[in-house]
Amino acid sequence: MLRWACPCAECRGEGYGTVGRLERATELPASELELEAVTLTGRYALQLGFKSGHSTGIYTFRYLRSLCPCADCRRSGAGA
Ligand SMILES: [Zn+2]
Ligand SMILES: [Zn+2]
């Protein structure tokens, strides 16, 4: 789920009409989906590294919260 939500430029497209990888892909190999490393980036985000070596996604806590499906987060609204 987190892999599919990767906010990096490669996955999302970088503007200029570029299509991100995740917008084209309908499925990803298992190695892409397996989380390998989590690095704290400053005080506001986590950098997630996947087994495939893909580690350019910076997930801010606000963004992670907005993805969280639990009742608490849903109730408080995205990014609260
Ligand atoms: Zn990415
Ligand atoms: Zn939650």
SS-based class: alpha+beta
Tell me the overall shape.
Answer: globular
As a percent range, the share of strand residues is: 15-25%
Multimeric status of the protein:
single chain
Provide a descriptive summary of the structure in words.
This protein is an alpha+beta fold and 80 residues long. It has one domain. Helix content is 31%, strand content 21%. The chain contains 5 helices and 3 strands; from the N terminus they run H-H-H-E-E-E-H-H. A 3-stranded antiparallel beta sheet has the order 1-2-3. Strand 1 (35-41) and strand 2 (45-50) form a beta hairpin. The longest helix has 7 residues, at 61-67. The relative contact order is 0.19. The mean pLDDT is 89. One zinc ion binds next to helix 1.
Main attributes?
80 residues, alpha+beta, three-stranded antiparallel beta sheet, 31% helix, binds zinc ion
